[in-house]
Amino acid sequence: xxxxxxxxxxxxxxxxxxxxxxxxxxxxxxxxxxxxxxxxxxxxxxxxxxxxxxxxxxxxxxxxxxxxxxxxxxxxxxxxxxxxxxxxxxxxxxxxxxxxxxxxxxxxxxxxxxxxxxxxxxxxxxxxxxxxxxxxxxxxxxxxxxxxxxxxxxxxxxxxxxxxxxxxxxxxxxxxxxxxxxxxxxxxx
Length: 189
What we know:
The chain is mainly beta. It has strands spanning 2-4, 9-14, 19-24, 29-35, 40-46, 51-56, 61-66, 71-77, 82-88, 93-98, 103-108, 113-119, 124-130, 135-140, 145-150, 155-161. The protein starts with a strand and ends in a 28-residue tail after the last strand.
């Protein structure tokens, strides 16, 4: 799942039917269901270029969604089993963890071309970008490590041992807490 806060739009992958649900955050309704590649697992958004990217783990591709038109406008071949992704919004570069091929695909958002493939640890899953430091971090589930990539050179500059089975889930706190409708008398614990 990913959110374009400026557009008040959320994107949710539906892995069992190869689609993405587009949600209007204001009305809290699904405004579109888009067919993407096989086994969509993750979404990343670059609001500056009005694009959403979907990692299709079942067929080794990334689908490109034009946020302005709401249409799937392209498919990019990447490594085997793409999952976690992150965007460097300043450089307009997308990083895709390919769990089946132990690589990270580097995609130039302006051309849609894969500009590099970087070997990392076993079963890469999560990706995070520190644009200010020009550094990409990739969790490797099977080796209990994080690969550190220099964005400028595209080289792995270090490997950090971490706990067992590092995953890539992250939560970015919204500027204001969301309010969700609840049933009368419902309580959360």
